[in-house]
Design brief:
The complex is a heterodimer of chains A (284) and B (179).
Chain A lengths: L4 H13 L4 H5 L6 H20 L4 H56 L9 H14 L3 H24 L3 H29 L19 H38 L5 H24 L4
Helix pairs in contact in A: 1-3, 5-6, 6-7, 6-8, 7-8, 7-9, 8-9
Chain B lengths: L2 H10 L3 H23 L2 H18 L10 H20 L19 H18 L4 H12 L4 H8 L3 H22 L1
Helix pairs in contact in B: 1-2, 2-3, 2-4, 2-6, 3-4, 4-7, 5-8, 6-8, 7-8
The chains are: A mainly alpha (284), B mainly alpha (179).
């Protein structure tokens, strides 16, 4: 099949564009040469004419300057966008970290609520308890919390007894005693705080007036009412704690029972002393 | 990856130097192509600038499809020309002027003869069909190969060769008719 004339012309034109002469380009196609030669001459003229078309140096400089300005503006825009993105990313990282810490913290605190003395989260549980005591609004509230925590220690003692961990029983007995001591201390602090303050004076203070002012009478009444409530709370707590410990005693291994009996007796004594102190209205 | 593909990929990522390299490489060809299509220096300058502005704006969304980068630029240039002519209510014409048609050569008699020939040729170019004129502009102005011109125009290489052949033949015929 013979080659199309436009294909042959294209091949010759390619030769011409590469810088070869019309004669050289036509050597391979002698038969088509008469037809192609004039067309290649026209093409040659076009090539020369086109090569002469050049943008003026002024325009080139102007266009180049405009391009530089545009590239600069584009880079500025991209950098601004990147800065905003970095800021957003930093902010997102910070927020995620805060939330993570918060969730991990809440999770840890929640899980630690059931921790036992021989578990890693037990110190967290004690720290949370301490924080609750610190954040309690009133001294009565603090005393109630200490009573509640004494009950908790008794619950932990039950579990330790079940697991046969005798050393923990002694420690927990001491912890219960400490909580009950703190109930007395808190109660005493509340009473002292409710005594009307006196202005500092260099002269010796006059002897106390036996007659009570209406306001001090009211405070005494309130203090007595609070002590009474606390006494009831402690009595209920004592009953529940001793119940719990006696149940534990029934289920405890035989070798643990003497130590547990001792602990129950000690806890009962500590409760009685605390209740007695509250009743008498004085701290030890 | 070819060098051009690498440079284009850098320009896509926002590398100003890479875009500058593409600009330097194609600026003259784009200008020549537009000039051959419109035949007016001022219009060719304005549109050449607009082509590169458009290219810079759109380079971020450019997708490499194994086509020469020039194809994309000439497509932008072609669309700019069409839009421009539509806005101006003009038809394509080639207004060859002496400012551009200066041909360097050692022999002044030869130069004069060539210049005359080219001017005669130029007068006839505007009488070509738009498709022929576009192919002639891409082949002689932008110096694209037949395959590249075909890709830029979205036509087959055979069609481009036929348009090229018929365009040159028509030009030649018109010139002979003048004699």
């Amino acid at each position: 099949m013979s080659q199309k004339i436009e294909d042959i012309f294209n091949e010759c034109l390619e030769c011409l564009l590469k810088g070869e002469s019309i004669e050289d380009c036509l050597k391979a196609y002698p038969e088509q040469a008469p037809e192609l030669e004039p067309l290649l001459k026209t093409s040659s003229a076009l090539i020369q004419k086109s090569a002469a078309i050049q943008a003026t140096p002024e325009f080139k400089a102007r266009a180049h300057s405009q391009l530089q300005k545009m590239l600069y503006a584009k880079r500025e825009k991209a950098e601004r966008k990147a800065r905003i993105l970095i800021w957003h990313r930093k902010w997102a990282v910070a927020m995620t970290s805060v939330l993570l810490i918060l969730f991990v913290g809440i999770g840890t605190v929640t899980v630690s609520a059931n921790a036992l003395p021989d578990e890693p989260l037990y110190p967290v549980k004690l720290a949370v308890e301490q924080a609750r005591v610190t954040l309690a609004f009133s001294d009565t509230g603090k005393a109630k919390l200490h009573t509640q925590f004494a009950e908790r220690r008794a619950g932990e003692m039950t579990e330790m007894a079940r697991q046969g961990k005798i050393d923990k029983i002694s420690i927990l007995t001491e912890e219960i005693a400490k909580h009950l001591d703190k109930v007395c201390v808190v109660e005493a602090t509340e009473k002292i705080a409710k005594v009307p303050s006196k202005a500092p004076t260099l002269t010796p203070s006059p002897p106390p007036t036996p007659a009570l002012t209406p306001s001090s009478r009211a405070e005494t009444y309130d203090g007595e009412k609070g002590a009474e409530k606390l006494k009831i709370t402690l009595s209920q707590s004592k009953a529940e704690t001793l119940d719990t410990l006696r149940n534990a005693l029934d289920k405890a291994p035989e070798e643990l029972k003497p130590r547990l009996k001792q602990a129950i007796a000690q806890v009962a004594k500590d409760y009685d002393e605390t209740i007695s102190i509250i009743e008498s209205g004085s701290s030890p | 990856m070819s060098i051009e593909e690498y440079v284009v990929s850098q320009a896509i990522k926002g590398d100003g130097q890479a875009f500058g390299q593409l600009y330097e490489e194609h600026f003259d060809k784009i200008y020549r192509y537009i000039y051959l299509r419109l035949g007016n220096q001022a219009e060719a300058e304005d549109l050449t600038q607009e082509v590169f502005v458009k290219a810079l704006e759109a380079i971020g969304s450019y997708k490499w499809r194994n086509l020469p980068f020039a194809s994309w630029l000439f497509r932008i240039a072609h669309n700019q020309i069409i839009d421009y002519l539509r806005k101006q209510g003009k038809v394509e014409k080639v207004d060859w002027d002496d400012n551009i048609a200066h041909i360097d050569g050692p022999n002044p008699a030869f130069i004069a003869e060539q210049k005359l020939e080219v001017e005669k040729l130029a007068d006839k170019i505007e009488k070509l069909s738009p498709a022929q004129r576009e192919v002639i502009s891409l082949r002689f102005g932008a110096e694209l190969s037949t395959a590249e011109a075909a890709k830029a125009l979205g036509k087959s290489p055979g069609t481009v060769k036929a348009l090229q052949y018929n365009g040159i033949a028509a030009l030649r015929k018109m010139m002979l008719g003048d004699r």
